[in-house]
Amino acid sequence: MSDKLQPKQANCLLILEADEPQSHSLFQLLQAYGYACITLDSVSQLKRYVFDDDVAYCLLADVGTSRKSKSRLDDYIQSHPQLPVIALSCSSNVNMAVTYTRMGTVGFLTKPLQIDSLLKAVQDGLQLARQIMDYRHQRVEYENRLMRLSQREREVLDLVIDGMSSSQIAQHLNLSVKTISLHRTNLMNKLEADGVVHLVRMITPGPIPKLVSPWQRHV
Amino acid sequence: MSQPNKPQNDLPKQPTFRDEHDMEGTVMTEHANIDSQLDSESAALSPDQMMQMLSHLQRLNLSSHLGLGLAHQLNHPLSASVNYIQCSIKKLQDDDFDRQELLGLLQHASQESYRAAELIMRLRRFVSQAVPRISTLNFNHKVLEVAALLSPLLKENDIELKLELHDDLPSLLGDRIQIEQILFNLGLNAVQSLTEHPVAEPCVVIKSDVNQAKTVLVCQVLDNGKGLDPRIAPHLFEPFTTTRANCLGLGLALSQVLSDLYQGQLTVENQPSGGCAATLTLPLSQTSENRSEIS
Questions:
Q1: What is the extent of the structural domain holding A170?
Q2: How many domains does chain A fold into?
Q3: Of A185, B116, B252, B273, most Cβ neighbours within 10 A?
């Protein structure tokens, strides 16, 4: 495919934890395993955080705090589907685990943390974060290319995607087949597309990547 | 909640276990006493012993209100400690560490483990079945101790705790656990009133003060909740009076009996500005007579 994206390796783990010793200890632990980390002590601090577009972020959030801050965090998680989240909880409450899993968190870990499950969750989280970042970069790239089209070219593109042949489009727009062919060649060049399927993918964004559950991998 | 935490740091990092052993000693003899009494006098307990058992039962009941919050509270230091240890293990495995850095991590780990131990000890002290022991007490320390016991409940419900403590209180003669029990009851009432009828900025204030002559200690526990139910106000200090489904209704009754032991007074009333105010006054000049009465 012509639009290969540059692989980006920068990762960052955001640690959202109000309890200072826990936050500091988790920071030290993850750094020892070679991860770049940033500690945040509240949802409002998370909201103020300025994300770098070229870094893959994964959020490790303590969900066992007071009711008020918990609902603020839940709102944040649900309104930011592009940020993979690992929920850290003091209690192994099944309802809570189900709630967070349905919200799409990458992992639900109980404290004290088991090092193996922590590392596995972080790997999953960052892998997903990179997929989401690539997806986002690709969307931006496609949007930029679509901006290059003239109004007429955009019109032709929409008809192509509707499944019309050049002669049908010519008839529809009351133009010659030759003109339509010219528009098609131009728009294919401008969009750097290598086929109609590619065009469809540019126009209709696929779903945001999600973590593939282990049981789905084998299907 | 930053205020009650601060003095905690002043506590010795390494808990003193001696006190604990002392107490367990007394617990044992206490059992022996009651048992022998049961045998010889066909279950006739003296009023003093009834009182001791009743207040012990009420403390056990009180501690059950801490419930999950306490388990969470305990998990925090353990969790941090495990993280520090795992981090040290990783650094040793990689054989890539700075001696000073590793030392720091392990010190953090031990400090956090002590923090967990301290929580458990505080609760054990509170629910222990000890014979009242009179000693000179710093009343403000008792307030801080109770604030620490209540802190999981306060955190869970986003309740702010303000402490307005008189910084030059004369010391008080009394039994540590009895005083803590009164304060805990008043504090828990305030917290429960705020959780049952939530308000915008729930807040509990605990004040300690002394009169000009330095003869009477005054402690107030205030909340900004709904206030007393008028139906219950006339019967406030009668046992088994409660508006709460899961409560025994012994808290205020017992607190009044306990404050009576100190010739003190306990009043509970609504504040003009809303919410409830519990006022405890304790005379400070304890004669030897009073002392023997309490013990």
A1: 148-203
A2: 2
A3: B252
Percent pLDDT > 70 in chain B is: 78
Using a CB–CB cut-off of 8 Å, the residues of B that contact A are 68, 71-72, 75-84, 86-87, 90-91, 94, 105, 108-109, 112, 115, 155-158
Q: Tell whether the model's pLDDT for residue B109 goes beyond 90.
A: yes
Same-domain pairing of A31 and A126: yes
Nearest of B293, B294, B247, B251 to residue B276 by alpha carbon = B251
Interface-testing mutation among B86, B92, B156, B195, with chain A (most A C-beta atoms within 10 A): B86
Q: What CATH number does the domain containing A72 carry?
A: 3.40.50.2300
Q: Provide the mean pLDDT of chain B.
A: 79
User: Which residue ranges form the domains of chain B, and what is each CATH number?
Assistant: 2-127 (no CATH), 134-294 (3.30.565.10)
Q: Which residues of A touch B152 (CB under 8 A)?
A: none
**Among B174, B128, B98, B101, residue whose Cα is nearest residue B25:** B128
Separation CA A95–CA A9 (nearest Å): 36
Tell me the pLDDT band of B217, cut-offs 50, 70 and 90: very high
**To probe the interface with A, which of B6, B74, B87 has the most A CB atoms within 10 Å?**
B87
Distance from CA of B207 to the nearest CA of A (A): 26
Q: What is the mean pLDDT of residues B26-39?
A: 47
